[in-house]
């Protein structure tokens, strides 16, 4: 057998242009069909997911897991912090209630036509004094907390000569005590002896 005959046998049949178009058209149709099928499966799957109980169960499980993780991570710290903060919050509410009661009585004296001018004047001066004390207490608390103290409550006595400062601090050492006393004396104008510092825990 000659080499030419071998080449003829191994040679692939040459397709005409029309046959090539048909072949390409079949491939395109097959690809489009696969795409439509996949799209249909995706839409059906999504519809099933949204309308079944499965998505709700998975969401619930995921949400519960996140809650447990947060509780496990922050549970103990939050409990301690809440207890400490509630102490200071309650003390502030009590302090404010006592002040409000005093201010109400003083305001009644001012509003009363039966009281003398001297009584009116004294009541007005006392209201101004209470207002000043509230302002000083707030300044002391803010400045003490700026020194790294977790929480602070300042209570000035009725005469405005002494102050009790309750602090939430891990270690109440001499340096912290000195800083607090310096703040209090500068704001209130009292002596070191008239500043009492109490550690809350």
Which helices and strands, and how do they pair?
Elements: H1 3-10, H2 17-51, H3 53-111, H4 117-146, E1 151-156, E2 163-168, H5 174-188, E3 195-199
Parallel strand pairs: 2-3
Antiparallel strand pairs: 1-2
What can you tell me about this protein's structure?
There is one protein chain. This protein has about 200 residues and is mainly alpha-helical. The protein is about 75% helix and about 10% strand. The chain is built from five helices and three strands; from the N terminus they run H-H-H-H-E-E-H-E. It has a three-stranded mixed sheet, with helices on both faces. The chain is elongated, with a radius of gyration of 42 Å. The chain starts with a helix and ends with a strand.
Distance between the amino and carboxyl termini: 109 Å
Q: How large a portion of the residues is in β-strands, by DSSP E?
A: 5-15%
Structure class? mainly alpha
Give the SSE order as H and E letters.
HHHHEEHE
Mean pLDDT: 76
Number of helices: 5
Main sheet makeup: 3 strands, mixed
Write down the Rg.
Answer: 42 Å
Q: What best-fitting shape do the alpha-carbon axes yield?
A: elongated
Oligomer: single chain
Helical content (DSSP H or I, runs of 4+): over 70%
Adjacency order of strands in the biggest sheet = 1-2-3
- Number-wise, the strands total 3
- Poorly predicted segments: 54-62, 68-80
